[in-house]
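re: that chain from earlier
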Amino acid sequence: MKRITFILLSLVFTFCQAQANRPEEVKPVKNLIVMIPDGCSLPVLSVSRWLQWYTHPDKPNLHIDPYLCGTVSTFCSNAPIGDSAPTTSCYMTGHPSRSGYVSTYPLPDPENDIYPTDPKRAYQPLVTLLEAMKMTQNKSTGLVFTCEFPQATPADCSSHSYRRGNYHWIAPQMVHNDLDVVIGGGVSLLSEDMEKYLIDNGYGVYRDNLQGMRADKNNKMWALYGDSEMAYDLDRNPDEQPSIEEMTRKALEKLSRNENGFFLMVEGSKVDWAAHVNDPVGICTEFLAFDRACGAALEFARKDGETLVVILPDHGNSGLSLGKYTCGGYDRLTKDQLFHQFAQYKLTADGFAKKINSEAFSEVQNIFRTYAGFELSEAELHALTQIKDYKNSPVPAENRSPEGIEPSLYSGSLTAFVAKLLTSRTCFGFTTGGHTGEEVFLASYHPEGTLPLGRHTNIEINQYMCQAVGLPVSLDELSHQVFAHHTDVFRDYTCEIIPSTEGKDFPTLVVKNKKNKNKQLTITPFTNIVKVGRKGQEEIHLNSVIVYVDANNTFYLPENLTQYLN
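^ sequence. v structure.
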């Protein structure tokens, strides 16, 4: 019975892959721009559009509106609801994977896998669309985002790990993957060694240096802002951090200089972050900032005539609704009644939390009057004093307690508490503070109109993009070429894995020619550098990174490395 089920599922998987536009139906393009508003459920478009229209009567439409063309079902390899790591990696690799896996083949879960998985490939790094276009077509590559750079979505394009939180594995891969343009958050995560590698290889590197980024004339650049993530767009100081629209335009300016074309991924990262905390103003203002970036990308594509733009979230989040049962008669309220209060919010919940923590308790009411258009009730003010991370509470930390506070008011963090206050003055509802599994929207621009119409899976979207850019080799074929098991590649040689040492939590692989001891390779994972010779006197720079997986004690590397041992 299990074998019959496996065969049926295999046929379904094959059918799903075949349903993406056939190669002869998709006209080839030179450039690909993929734009991902992270954690953006479909209602976000509706609420954001209304907010924009209410505050700017001359702007009733989003930039993406004319290009909406379908929906996408996103999922993990063994679950219908996914996080950013496996869902975006499916867009990039064509394979659904497990929660937390960054462009890495999933460990099988036979009882729950949605499509069949190959146990022999478990933990294998999977070549991404970005990597493939760089390796096989000599295209430039770029990433724009507002989270820290090793976060799941940008990491999915340019690194590999079965643990999305392993930034010490992911960050060096992103640096050594020789991306041409990277603009986003994460100043503190770029080590001195990483920065040296970039500078030595001709990059302009800017840390919290907006003017430097704007003046940079190089083709290759890393520009990072904020110790970790960038500020929400509504809270952003425009003299210190660029908008995601400006970042997108800067990346396009540089990448488009390559006559072979380019790949660019733009992520509206913090739509998801605001959704997790149920902050409606954060969600909508982040999405509108992202939509303006989409406008810049679409403007470029229309003028260029050789660029495909694909816009789609990686998953839903929070179950946002315009209307909730506790808001009596909400279905008959006017746009003023629904949006007047909402339109007065001048900070996100996170921005409010920072503002409240930076000023005396006596200023709380004035802060809310100025930046939200309302004052707190006595009950709300009392609840605020009990929040653990409120620095200026008149109540000592050891005496704070949620006892006696209305459950709908109390929250464990100041940001979440403020989000509840902001939401309470609206008729918006939330079902969860986590990811959701509904289909997400799909928008696309193709210069010759061969669009992915209707409903697709995340697998099919990958197939469509691969066909559109005309990869000469399949992603799976490339994965087997550049991410082969070290014991297979070096089966005729002597391999020694030298354990990690203090200050370095991953091992080194040393490979020797059994007949000639001078022929030796020293391989450090998560880079693209291989040292040749007993003293490592020669360095080889690969066009792919080497990945080590501790779960199976395996180095994944190019199968042609043996040429340096003969």
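The radius of gyration is 25 Å.
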